[in-house]
Structures are given as structure tokens and as C-alpha cells.
Protein: Flavoprotein family protein
Organism: Megasphaera elsdenii DSM 20460
Amino acid sequence: MKEILVIGAGAAGIMAALAAAEAGARVHLFEKNDIVGKKLGITGKGRCNLTNSCTMADFIAHTPGHGKFLYSAYEQFTNQDLLDKLNAWGLATKEERGGRIFPQSDSAIEVRKLLYRKLCHKGVDLHLSDAVHAVKAWGSRMVVSAASGNYEGDACIITTGGMSYPVTGSTGDGYDFARSLGHSVTELKPALIPFTTAETWPHTLSGLSLRNVEGSLWKRGKKMASYFGEMLFTHFGVSGPIILMLSMAAAHKKACTFPMQLRLDLKPALSKEKLDARLRRDFEKYIRKEAANALKDLLPQRLIPIVLDQAGIARDCPVNQISREQRQDLADTLKALSLTVTGTRPIEEAIVTAGGISVKEINPKTMESKLVPHLYFAGEVIDIDAFTGGYNLQAAFSTGFVAGTAAATKECIPCEN
């Protein structure tokens, strides 16, 4: 019986262990925490966005961090394969907006407990609260040095995650293991993370959420990316879905340096001409009011003073004294409310890590190292990262399944360089 050593009991590690066990191997799963799937238990705001119902081609398109590397993994283990497994194991699922798939119960903890039971049922040897300190290749064998001792196996699968949410155990250990075995680790950056801003006024709006707005990121007058949807003002700057996606785009720009400019189109459904017409109607309606009171039908009350300040209009200016030029300046501001992005929150707060073990050194058909035989990688420790919407978890499950199956079956597929 082949013996497989898996390091890290996140989504990728759990799936790798289960796949290897189902293929007939004896599996040791090492986890520094006292539970499996700790980060999995907080994903999707505690609801666990398991995957997405889109095509696998769309998964690639939603993975700016080396999505093409995942073609083979997605062919071997699709989103439907994942759902078939989870449903067969007793987890009811549902589809929501944007194709996002969640457990019917809206409980990430239910998913984590289900996977724990499956690991026990499949006879996986769980080494909880057992941190791994080193991984070595010894001839055709792999050796793992853990807190509880040294373990020797036919193969080792590193699934230790990235640098985000270190309280869940993702502290970058896998990068050190890979480097010690001769692998390259690309630059590590925070992805899917809020922005900090030079301006302090977002603090005064902290907690205010805007829907149906468009955010665009600019550098030296050139637009880097733009997204439509929802955003949130915070005590340190801005966050929310479109901000997280912009941060992903910034992480993958080679010349990404801060500061950058964030422009918010507060009325993307209206052209500037239609917006000017709307302003004229509102000003006629509130002709005897001050400017701050004339925009209450157009904007959230807390945002009005900020918009007027950027447009250069006094908040107490009577509406009947606002000139045509001032009204056009106001329209311009509504279409491009500006903020200076000074950086991101710390990488520890990122949803995922951009960068990781170089995909050039991994066989995409098996997840086996091209440098060290019998060494495999899966999940976020690899230099792959995707947008929110279930894409990152699917990548973890798929690469974990492929690595576990290949390691257990001694599968040797020629790699196309």
C-alpha cells in the first residue's frame, strides 16, 4: 500500500487526502491547528461559497493568476464532479446570484464538519495540532519532520495555503518547504483586499455601502481596470466587491506601484447629458433650497457634502445661484468622484495571496514537481489566484483531487513544457 503525506488540512489538503485514500493509499494529513478546514469555516462570510455553476472555461477567465495552468486539473475534476461528491456525501447545495454555489444551510461549519467525517470514514490518519517543520527528499522517498516526529512516505503533497488569514494557519510555511527543495516562489502580494486612501473623508462615511456604481483604477492617466457593482467606505479607505476585484487587477499589473487614483462613477447608468438633465430637474424642484438639500433624491445624505466639496460648490449655496458651469462640474464629479489609493491593507487580511510556487516548475497534469519526484503541490500555495465567486475554492478542490489521485496511483504523465 502506498503511503502519502499531506501537509495542510485546508480545502486542497482535505481533497488531496480523500482522493489518495479513495485510490487505495494510506494517508497521513498534518495540520498545525486542532481542527481541519479552519479557513474553510470562515469563507463566504461564514456561508462557504463552494464553487460556481459557470463553465470551466469561465473559471479560467476568472483566474487572472495563471488560470491556463488549471486546464488539465479542471478537465479531471470539474465543478459538477465536486457537487456530485458533496451531494452524495449528504450536503444539500443551492445556486445564487452570479452562479455562486452555497450549502443549503448557509453554514461553512457544516461543510467543514462533513469533510472531517469523511476523512475519518476513509481512514485518513489525522495529525492535528502537529506542525510540520521540514520536508526532505530521501532517494525515492519523502520525509516530513513534524512536532510529533519524522514520517516517511512514497509521496508528499504540500497544501499549506498562502499568506492570508494567518490565524487560520496560513503563514507561508509551504513556501519555505518548496524553497528548501529547490523551487522558486514568485513575489507574494495581497489580492482581493481593501484599499487604503490618502483622503480621510472615507472615515466619515464608514459603513456606507453604495450599489450599482462603477469603480476604475488609474495610473498616470491610464485606466488599469474598472468594475461595476457594490462598494463600501471604511475607516481606512474603501472595500467591497468592486474594490476587491480592482485590487486583484492591480496585483497582476507588472508596473503596479502606489499611489494610484480611484474614480467612482456614482451614476454609471446615466450619460453626462442625462445626468445634467436630472440635476436641472432636481434644482428646479428644490429651487429655494441650499445645495446640500437639493441632492437628497440623488445621493445618500452622508455622501452629499463630499461630492459638493469635490465639485467646488459651497454646501450652503442657494440652488438658484448655482451657475451652469458649476452644475456641469457637479456632473463631472458624480461621474468621477476621486480618491488617492495609497496601498492595500496588510497581506494578512487578503482573501487570497497572489504569487506562490512557480507554475513553471509543476506538472499541470499531475501537480507533481518537475524538480523533485514524488513531491506535489495543490491549492493557494501554487502561484494561482482568482476572483471571488467560488473560483478559488474550486481551484483548491481540483488541484487537491489531481495531486492526491496522481500521488496515490503513481501516475506518470509526460509533461509538455
Remarks:
- The first strand starts at residue 3 and ends at 7.
